[in-house]
Structure formats: structure tokens, C-alpha cells
Amino acid sequence: MDIVRRGARTLWLMAVCAALLFAAACGGDDGAGDDRPFEDNPTEIQGVSTPSAFPIEIERSDGQKLTLDGPAKRIVSLSPGATEIIFAVGGEASLAGVDKLANYPAAAAAFEPKVDAFQPNVEAIAALTPDLVIVADNGSGIVGNLDRLNIPVLYLDIDDEVKSIDDIFGQIGLLGRITGTEEAANELLVDLNARVKAVEEKLVGLPTTRGPAVYHELDSTFYSASDGTFIGSLYRTLHARNIAGDGGGVPYPQLTQEAIIAASPNIIVLADEDFGVTVESVKARPGWSAIKAVQEDRIYGINADIISRPGPRIVDALEQLAKAFYPNAFQ
Amino acid sequence: MLELRAVEAAYGARRVLRGIDLRVRAGELVALAGPNGCGKTTLLRVVSGAHPAARGDVLVDGEPIQRAGSRRLAQRIAVVAQGAPLPDGFSAFDVAMMGRTPHLGLLQSEGGRDIDIVRAAMLRTRSWDLRARPVDELSGGERQRVLIARALAQEPRLLLLDEPTSHLDLAHQVDTFRLLRELCAADGIAALAVVHDLTLAATFADRVALIADGRVAADGAPATVLRAETIERVYGVPVRVLAHPRTGLPIVVPDAARERSDGAAFAGVAGGAP
Amino acid sequence: MQIAPARRARLAAPDDAPPLVTWRTQAPLFLLAALGTLLVALFAVSWGTVDIPPRTTLSILAGHLPFISTGEHAATADAIIWQVRMPRVLLAGMVGATLAFSGAAYQGVFRNPLAEPYLLGVAAGASVGATLMIISPLFVVAGMFSPVPPAAFAGALIAVALSYGLARNGGSVPAASLILAGVAVSSIGTAVVTYLMLTYNERTLEILNWILGGFNTATWTDAAILLPYAALALAGIAPLARIINVMQLDEDEARHLGVNVEAVKVAVLALASLATAAAVSVSGIIGFVGLIVPHAVRMAWGPDYRRLLPLSALFGAAFLILADLIARSINPGYEVPIGVITALVGAPFFLALLRRQGAGRRPA
Question: Which residue of C has its CA nearest to B152?
């Protein structure tokens, strides 16, 4: 699971914990609650950017304007998704630091120096003399700290700005422009778009209502991803019905166990195999034998990083799931 | 009943009792008096088993108290402590009933016999009418009567009281001591009470033991112990001891006239007293 | 403290002894409370995200009793009632009973109304144990049975033993030292957990999920794990209620009445801590129950531990079952952390009781 994704929920839970344990409100910013669309999206729908010159003006998730007069040369990326994108577009020369959970590609895993995105240390970041810091989660208040040091911050909140595959493509285009690798970014986007289109074409004619019901498991206490997240958009693309629905207004809700059993999803997708959940352990859960996916043996594990991280590999996730969901169509 | 032989006790390095010899016979009310810090309360604690004696023997009915378990000890010795806190919300009856604790097995509930004993104890201490009242609503005198009722419910042979009348008005002081007298006389209970008011002690006690500096300075009938020179030696203040016009019992009053004339000398002695 | 209604009745009673508080005289009250708790439990089992008619629910429950056949039921309804809701309600009830009962017992031996079952470090110790397990490789390879509950249990017991060891001074363990030691051990535990969460932040969510607790994943196995400890605490402490009453005097007074204060203290704390550790290990750390339920019972029925302990257990069960019911039905299909509910429902309820009690005090 992506550190940033994890971070936002974690901080929200921390706030709850703090409030409960110490009976005092903790200043944890949940990073959500701002539904303003990404108005200043400088890219076209599929993310392929129009050739445009600097300066680039971007409206951040906190409403502040960020203006870049030229390509960034020393980027500190606190988002593993953004790090993956920058490596994918060949912009790694512009990187001055990545967060310590960056593990893909191998070059990113080997990249030094690394910083902690979960509890970012503003001094450690400033010491890298960045000309741009990429932040996807401001739960720790790092954006304000960097602003005070006049370090430019590209703050695009993962919950607010990344709600679909297209939003991820938009970020690919944007990061391509920022790192001065527009061409490579556009090539990547053409390729990714083609792969998405290929999946979509095979599913043409499948009415959404007849698609499989799917339960996406983030952890063993039944946290899931709602329709309003980019994970949810993946399932929409696959004509699958996500049983987490709108999440009751929460992007990553905890589902009640009996609701999962009652929904009896056709397919269960496990993004929590890293935490010891296995196909076997799911089958062994008391009462779960009443679920179609268990009866029909349609439980699939997926690498949490590729599906929970807003990076180019989201298309890998889409293809893997498409094959699992429609084995006949994807021989 | 109670016998102390060369009892010594200490708190850490501080020696508080330095060899106490004392006897209390059944049916006897003995008043313990002496200046603050002389060891009276420690003496009571040693007898009740709350504080260990460093040396010497404390015998109850000829048996050393260390040998009796705490429960058997509580069947014989009841303690009415000074300013003992009473738990909010419990009724006077509940608190008096707690006196039955040493007579009940761990898993045993109180029965009809226990009720009879507690009723008798509360009637004697005139606290039966208070039985349904929460103890936190009782006055000082009422609390003291309930505490003595609880002690009686233990059916003790020996009653230890630490300043039982210190917060009571005159009427309640007299009341409490009359009750103690009656208990000793009628039930053969032995009572050892720390008393500050020497006149009160003289009026009601069979014997007065004056403690000074961890030792028994004088012990005997009130009229023999409560002499002006003895009291002045122990307390370091000038006093006059008068005789009650009818009973002849000693009445101790500060000697204001001498206090004024040679107060300095006595202040010096008082300052030197521990 | 306000005169409880029962006491008022005594005032008007004829000139005879007030009724004794014994198991026998209190049986009607306990039975009534048990019946109420049972009804709450039944209601909670029949109510949920999925609409299953009460008749079907009862029929399914009866069908699982030996020698009773109520015919076939839909597999889904059966799974939901018998495999999900029943263990969930049962576990919530057992945890609520354990926490409230242990809280009352702690308050009794500490003679402190602010004592609660996490006072000696159970929660912090369990968190350390659970956290260490979650970040260890064992967590991933364990398979069917989660290794987290045993680790939490061990952590909780180590923490309590540590508090007790630190507070021990010769033969006795003064209550004030014990409370201070518990606070210190809890702080250390919390610090360790915080450090580990930040260091292993890829696992932070798992750790926080565990700490927040809840009953969404409750199974019959969880209930079976807790049962012996809860039963042991109940069976071991309830008979000491009369002695705990005596300990409400002060410790010296209780000794003068022949009570072996240290032994009772150790026995009660050990049993209550053991049960609390077991409860925490299967449900996470659920606050407020152990503190407010005994208080509420005390306000309504007075301070006698022979009433307080059994009623705390029963009302603790009912309270947590209801809190969990709210947690799973406030946003149907989705969960709200139960700690939020116990705090949001429990605290105002408690404050209301407090105010009522204040208003009912005798005129000054």
C-alpha cells in the first residue's frame, strides 16, 4: 500500500486515537474534506500535455498558487507514486531526494538520499536544497513548514486530486512538464492510454449491471476503497460493481463484515497479502463460505503497491484484474 | 488480658518506644496520656498488630500477638482509630456490620446471628436509630458511636481507642466515656484509650499511664499519677491539680499565675521535651 | 453520595434491621439486570445492516441449539446470524462485562473512583506486544491464526508485572506507588509504540487498527479465548465483594478487622488484570467502559460491592453491545470505531448522571 494513502488514513486514525486516549483534540489534518476539483489541470483529458512553455501555474490542493518559471532541477519527492512517475518519464536526473518507501523501479529503491514522508523532517528536506518538493499528503503539516522556508511545494492531495486513472495520467503529464521530459511523458501516456483502451475494447458490450460484484480488501479488518477513489475507478473501467459503494462518504471505509457476506461478491481482491492475509485464510473466515467468491474460488491477490500507488503501474493492475475478472476475454 | 513487656518499636532509625511495660486487666479502662510524639499512638499500633515491635513481648491473654493471625487478633482486639475515614454511601448499619468481618469465613455471608449482634451493639451505643443513614451524613458524635458499635460487633476482649473524644463537644465526650466505662464494667472488656484531657482521664479511667519519651513515666490510679510535679515533669508546663469537691478526683488546670511569673523556665523545659 | 432509593425505603421501614446485601437478597435485582442484558443481546443479534426478520433470527438461533430442528435457512442469513452477529454480540458483551467488572474491582482495591482497568499498564503493554508482533515477520507468515492476540496478552501481563514490581516495597505495595508505577509503565509503553509506528510506518495502519479495537472481526474463537479468563475473574473476585467493602474503610482499618489487605489486593489485581489483558488482546483498547459503567451503577445502586461488581458486569455487557450496535448501524454497511461511540455515548450519559447526582445532594 502506498505510504501516502496509508498516511492520510493513518493520521485520521491517529487523531481519533489521540482524542480517545488523551481526551484532547489532536491537530491531525485528515487531508480530506476539500472536494474542489483540480481546476488548473493543464493537461488534456488523457493527460497528454500540449506543448507549452514555462511559466506553469498550478493551483495546489490547499488553494495556493504555485508558479514554476522553468524545469525543476532538484526535486524532493515525498510521494512514491510521483517518484515512480518521474523515473518512468526519465526525469530522475531532476531528483534530489525520494521518500524512504520508494521501492520501484530498482533505481528508485537504490536512490539516495531518502527522507521520511510519514514524519517529514523539514530541516533534512531543506538541507537537500530542493527547488521543488512534491507532497501528496499534508497530514504532518509539512506544506506550511516548507512554505515558511520559501521552498516551492507541489501539493496535490492524493484523496482530492487523484480519483481516477485519468487523474493519474494528468499527473504523469504534469510531472513530465515540470521535469522537462514532456516527450517521454507523452510517449508513456500514449502507450498507457492504448493499453487502457485495449482493455476497454474487450469489455465493450458488457453492460455495467451484469459485471461481477467485487470486494477490494485493504486490510484484515475489512477496510476497502470506495467508488470515489482511483481504485474504485479501476473497477468502474472493468464494469465491476464495487461493494464498498460510495463508502458512506469516506474514501477508504471500513466495511461491516455482515455487509460483505450479504453482498456476496463474485470476486475478492486482496491488497493485504503483505499483512499475512492469504486466499486460504480468507476462505477459512467463519461465515465467508456463504460468499460466491469463496464458493467459486475467485479470490485474487494483487501487489498493494501497484494498485494503491498513483503511478504508471496502475495500468498493470488494471490488466491483471481484467485477466482475473474475464479469463475468457483475455486469453 | 493485655501485657506489654519491655516493648520497643521504631520507625526506621527513629526509636519511638524504648521499653514499655504495661498491663491492662479485663474490665479495666486505662487512659494513656503524654505529650504529642511521646509514642502513645505507636503503642496502640503495636498492640493492634499494625506496627511490629522491634523488641519485647505483646501478650493478649498470655499469647504473643505475632502468633495469632490477623483474623484471630481481630476477634479479640477492636480498634477505634482517630479520624478514621468512613466510605461514602455506606449506611451506619453497613459499617457496624463490617465489625463482623473477623468472625465470617471468606465466602460466608452475614446471617441472623450477625444481625442480632450488630443490633445489640448499635442499641448499646445508641446508634440503632442511625442505622439507615449514610455515614457521610453523620455528625462527629454519631460517627464515633457507630465506630464503637462496629468495634463491639467484633465481640472483642480488648478495645483500643485513639483519642476517642478529640473532636467531640463536652456532652459527647462525657457520653463516650460513660459508654466505655459501662462496657468495661458490664462486659469485662479491657479498654486502652489515648486521652489528652487529663481531667477526663481522671474522671473515667481506672488507671492512667503517662508516657514520656517512649517510656512509662507513671502508671497507677488517677489520684496517684496525676500530681502536679509529675505532670510538669512530663509535659513541661506549670499546672495545678485540684480535687473534685465531691469525688475527690484530680482536676488538672494550667497554672496561669506561675506561667506568667516563670514561664521562661518552663518554656525552656517544654522546648527540650521530645 | 445520594441516598439510593432502596435506602430511602429503609428509612421508613419499621424498627428492624435493614436488609442485608447478600447474593440471596439481591437475586431478583441481578436476575432482572441479566434479563435486560439478554434482551439487549437478542435485539443486537436481530438488528444489523442486513435485514433479517426477528422470527428468522430466532429460528436460526434455535436451529443451532442441540436437538432442535427449525428447517433449512438461507446460507447467507445463517452465516450472518450465527457466524458474524452472534460471536460479535457475544464478544462485545464479554469484553464489556470484563472491562466494567475489572474497573469496579480496581476502583475497590485502590479506593479510587478514577481507577480503571488500564491503570496498571494493561493497555500500553498490550499495544507494545501487538505492535512488536505486527512489525515482526511472524505476522505475515502466521496463516490462519493471528499471532497478535497472544503477543498482546503477553505484553499486557509483562506491563502489569512491571508496575507491580516497581511499586513493591518490602512486603507491601502501596496503592499510590502502584498507580504511579502504572502511569510510568504506560507512558513508556506508549512511547515505544509511537516510536515503532513511526519507524515501521508501512505497518502503522495495522497497529492503529489494532489499538482502536472493535468487534468487526469477532469470531467464536475470540469469545472462547476470553471466556476462561473472564469467568475466572468473576468467580475469583465476586466472592471477595464483602471484603472489598471493608477495604473501603482504610487499609489499616481493614487490617484491624482481620482482612489480609495485601493478599486481597494482589488476588483482585491479578485476576482483573488477567481478564482485562485477555479482553484487550481479542478486542483492542476500548476506553470509557471500565471507568463509567461502575460509576453509573454506583450512582444508581450505591457503593456496596456485592451489588456493584455483578451489576457492573451485566451493564458493562449491555453497554458495549449497544455501543457496538451503534458503531455498525450508524452508517449501515460501514463501521465507525467503537471507541468513538463509547466516548460519544458514554461521556454525555455519564455527565448527565453526574449532574443528576449533584442536583440530588442533600441541601448544604
Answer: C257
B120 in contact with C, Cβ within 8 Å: no
Q: Which of A221, A222, A295, A303 to mutate to test the interface with C (most CBs of C within 10 A)?
A: A221
Predicted confidence at residue A25, as pLDDT, reads 31
**Which one of C112, C244, C257, C357 makes the best mutation probe of the B interface by having the most chain B beta carbons within 10 Å?**
C257
Query: Sorting pLDDT into bands at 50, 70 and 90, what band is B141?
Result: confident
Of the options 3.40.50.300, 3.10.300.10, 2.102.10.10, 3.40.50.1980, the CATH number for the domain spanning A6-38+209-325: 3.40.50.1980
pLDDT > 90 fraction of chain A, expressed in percent and rounded: 67
Cell of A17: 486515537
**Segment B167-191 mean pLDDT:** 90
Rounded alpha-carbon distances, angstroms, from residue B171 to A151, B160, B184, B206 = 84, 22, 20, 21
pTM listed for this prediction: 0.85
CB-CB neighbors (< 8 A) of B70 in chain C: 255, 258-260
Mean pLDDT for the stretch of residues A203-217: 82
pLDDT for A50 equals 56
- What is d(CA C185, CA C160) in angstroms, rounded to the nearest whole number? 8
Residue C215 pLDDT greater than 70, yes or no = yes
Please state the ipTM of this predicted complex.
0.87
Class of domain A56-190: alpha beta
CB–CB of B5/B62 below 8 Å?
no
Beta strands (DSSP E) in chain B are 2-11, 14-24, 29-33, 55-60, 63-64, 77-80, 158-162, 190-194, 207-212, 215-220, 239-243, 250-254
Report the Cα B262 to chain-centroid distance in Å: 34
Q: Is C44 helix (H, G, I), strand (E, B) or coil?
A: helix
Name the 3-class secondary structure at A78: coil
Measured distance CA(A254)–CA(C363) in Å, rounded: 51
Position A21 scores a pLDDT of: 40
d(CA B49, CA A263): 70
CATH superfamily of C5-65+73-358: ABC transporter involved in vitamin B12 uptake, BtuC (1.10.3470.10)
Contacts of B136 in chain C (CB under 8 A): 1
Helical (H) or strand (E) element with C138 = helix C138-141
Domain ranges of chain A: 6-38+209-325, 56-190
SS3 C268: helix
Residues near C23 by Cβ (< 8 Å), separated by ≥ 6?
B109, C306
For the residues B237-252, what does the mean pLDDT come to?
Answer: 89
Residue C109 and residue C265: Cα distance in Å, rounded?
6
- Determine the Cα–Cα distance for residues A133 and A76; give it in Å rounded to an integer: 5
Those residues with Cβ within 8 angstroms of residue A156's Cβ, 6 or more apart along the chain or in another chain = A38, A60, A61, A134, A135, A136, A162, A171
pLDDT at C346: 78
Per-residue pLDDT of A271-303, as tens digits, reads 998 888 999 999 999 999 999 999 999 999 999
**What residues have CB less than 8 Å from B166, skipping those under 6 apart?**
B82, B196
Q: Is residue B109's pLDDT more than 90? A: no
Give pLDDT tens digits for C24-72.
889 999 999 999 999 999 999 999 988 888 888 888 998 888 777 766 7
